[in-house]
Amino acid sequence: MPARQPSPLPTAANAGPSTAAPPGTDLPDVVSGFNGDNIVESPKLLLLVSPIMANTKPLVTAACVCEKVLQEKDNVPSIIRIVDTFFIQVPPEDFPKGVQPQLAMTAFVYLRAGDLKGSFEIGLVLRSPSGKTTPVQKWPVVFQAGNEEGANLTIAFGIAKPELEGGYWFDVLWKDQVLTSIPFKVRPLDEANAPLRT
Predict the structure, then answer these.
(1) Contacts for 193 with CB less than 8 Å, ≥ 6 apart
(2) Comparing C-alpha atoms, which of 89, 86, 87 is closest to residue 106?
(3) Coil, strand or helix at 29
(4) Alpha-carbon torsion angle 170, 173, 176, 179, nearest 10
(5) Which of 7, 139, 184, 191 makes an SS bond possible with 38, Cβ 3.0 to 4.6 Å?
(6) How far apart are CA 189 and CA 54, in angstroms?
(7) What is the dihedral of CA 138, 140, 145, 146, to 10 degrees?
(8) Secondary structure of residue 188 in the 3-state scheme
(9) Which residues of the chain fall below pLDDT 70?
(10) Residue ranges, CATH 2.60.40.10, the chain
(11) Separation of alpha carbons 169 and 182, rounded Å
(12) 59-189, what's its fold?
């Protein structure tokens, strides 16, 4: 197999910020580093390439399941009682037929724009412990200024006939890809776990 030829050093047109060794520094005759997938070799010169890429997805500041969200007068949201486990009373045998317990909750997602500007959609999917998923629900998100501009989504949910054992997930979707996921558990209420929520 022929020997691999070293790639040429980046030029000023395609190189990022660089740092050269100060005068008098004792360096080996050849310094090797990486530039992408290529090996860079140069006599007594160390080049540090620092590419900066714009974010293509929003930055997730917060994502949780809670009891409720208050929208204050200064338009700042307050999250009340972040929940990771819900306890549900198992219906007694004499419970009316056709009436099923429901689990009510609020999902909260807070995003930062970063480099994004324009109109987008954020989606939410619920996954049950058995692997079943709800249809994707979507809401519009608009970033006009970019940078530190934020957008929050507060969604009240009710789960009918919740599975009483196992973990649920809310998948937050951005361009039909999972941006982040919010886990929570559902357990039956008994004497050993009297609190309604933890």
Answers:
(1) 87, 187
(2) 86
(3) coil
(4) -110
(5) 7
(6) 48
(7) 10
(8) strand
(9) 1-52, 98-99, 101, 164, 191-198
(10) 59-189
(11) 5
(12) Immunoglobulin-like (2.60.40)
